[in-house]
Amino acid sequence: MSLNRVTLFDITILTLLAIGAGCGLVYEYLLSHYAGRVLGTMEVAIYGIVTIMLISMGAGSFLSRKIADPYTGFAWLELLLALLGGGSILIIGGVFALSHLLPQQIATTFALPPDLTPSGGFILWMEGVARTFPYLFAALLGLLIGMEIPLIGRIRAELYADQRRDNPGVIYGVDYIGAGIGAILWLLWMITMEVTTAAALTASLNLLLGLIFWWLFREKVRGATLLLGANLLVAVSLLQLFDNGQRWSNAMEEILYKDHVILQQQTRYQRLVVTERFIHPAKPPLYTFYINGRTQFASNDEFIYHALLTYPAMAAAARHEQVLIIGGGDGLALRDLLRWNPQQVTLIDLDPDLVALFRDPILRQGTVVNQPLLAANKGAFDDPRVKLHFGDAFTAVDPLLAAEAMFDVIIVDLPDPGHPDLNRLYSSRFYGKLYNLLAGDGVIAIQSTSPYHARNTFICIGKTVKESGFSHVEQYHHNVPSFGEWGWTIATKEGRSPRQRLQQLQQLPLADPWLTRGVLLATFEFGKDFYVGSDAIKINHLGTMTAYHYHHQDWMRDLGSGYFQQQNLEKRL
C-alpha cells in the first residue's frame, strides 16, 4: 500500500474515531438525561450514569485485547453501538412501563379495590429491576465505547507496519476533540430534541461510520457479507425509530402516570408533563403539572400553596408597589400577587419555554392544548405590569443590584435544593443579594420544603436567611394535599417581625378563598420540640452544598430506601 493511500486511510480512521467519540458522549448525556426523567432523581442519575460509563469504558479498553482481529472487531463494534444506543431509550421506557402496568392489570383482572393494588413482593422486585436498566445500558455502552480507541490504535499500527505509529497522543487528541464536538451538539441542538429521535440520530451516525469502515476494509473484515446484512437490518430498525419512536415513547411515559397525559414537552432545562383526571361529570377536571417527574402543583389545591407563599409577605409589607418573584414560571404566584394591585412585578425564571407554556396558546388540531394552564394563572403574563427576565437567578439579580433597584416584597418560589445547581440559590450569598434588593420595610417569603419530611433542610434555610443579614426571620407551615405538610420562611430587615405585623391586623386586607386571620396566624405554630437541637444544624454557605446534603439525607431518612421509588411513584398519585 502506498504511503499516500496509507495516510488517506489514517485520516479517515481518525475522523471515524472522532465521530464515534462524539456519539459516545451523546449517549452518556442522553442516558443521564432520560434516567433522571424516569427515576425522578436527576442529580443521582446523572452522576451515576457518568460514573458507570467511565468505569465501563476503562474495562472495555482492557477487554479489547481479547479481540483477535481489530478490523472485524471494530466493524461489529459500531453495529452493536448503533443497535444498543438507538434502542436503549425504548427498552428502558418499556421496562418501566411494564413494571407499572403489571400491578394495575392484576388489580383489574381480580377486581381489587384501589387500596389493595399489588405493591410488594414480586411487584417491588420488578420495579427495582426496572430502575437498574438505565445503569445496565450505561455499563454496556461504556464497555463498547471503551474498546474503540485500542482497536483504532492497533489498526493504525498495522497500516503503518510500525508499532510506533500507535501514537496515543494523536488518538486521544482526536478522541477528546470528537467528544467535545458531540457535547457542543448536544447542548446547542439535541438537548431539546425528543429522546428517541436523538438516540436514533446518534445511532445512525454509528451505523454510518461502521459502514464506511466496512467499505474501506471489507477485504480484511471477516464475514463481510453477514455484517452488511446486519447493518441493513439495523438501518431499517432505526428508520422505524425515527418514524414511530416519539409516539411509542410518549405512550410508555403515559403509563407511568395514573392520569391521562395531555401535554409533554422537553425544554433545554427540564421535562414538562401535564396530566388530566376527570373526577365527576359536574366538576372540572383535575390537572397536575410535573417537572422531571416531580409534582409541581395540582389544580385542585395549588391555591392553598400559593396563598401561603404570597399572602403573608404581602399582608406584612408596608407597600406593594414593586414586587420581585424568583422562579414561579407557571405564573400562579404572579396571579395572586397581581390581586394586590402592584405598580410592577419583576419575575426571573430560568426556562423561557416553561413560561411560554403558561403564557402562549399551543394550537394542535384546532384545540389549544395548554388552555387549562392559561386559565390557571388567569393570563397573568399578559398583564402590562409584569416584567420578565430569563436566566439563572443567582446572576440574573446582579443587573438589578447594579441599577440599585428596590422591592417592597420578594417571593422566592424555587424547587427544593435537591440538585447541586439549586443549592447556591439557597445559600447565604444569594440571600445576601436579595437582602440588598429588599426595601427597609419590605418582606421576603421563601419556599422552604417540608418541615415534616425534611426538618433539617427546613431549619437550615431559616438559619441561612438569618445569616445573610435579615433582622427578623420566622418560619411557618401548612398542609397542602398534593405535597403534605409544607413550609415557608419569611423575613424582614427592619421594624417589627412578620408575625407581629400580621398579629396587628384586625382583619385580612384582601379576601382569600382559603385563608382566614386565624388560619394565617396558626401557621406560625410548631410542635414544642420541633426546633430542639437546631443549634447543630449548619448554615448553607456558598460552595458548601449543605442544603443539598441535608435535603438528600432528610428524605432518605424519612422514607428509607424507598425515597427514590417514592419520587417516581408520585406520578401515579
Report on the structure:
It is a single chain. With 573 residues, the protein is α/β, with parallel strands linked by helices. The chain is built from 20 helices and 13 strands. The chain folds into 3 domains: 3-255, Growth Hormone, Chain: A (Up-down Bundle), CATH 1.20.1250; 260-291, no CATH class; 299-572, Rossmann fold (3-Layer(aba) Sandwich). 55% of the residues lie in helices and 14% in strands. The strands form 3 sheets. The chain has a 7-stranded mixed β-sheet with strand order 9-6-5-10-11-13-12, sandwiched between helices. Strand 7 and strand 8 form a beta hairpin. Helix 3 packs parallel to helix 7.
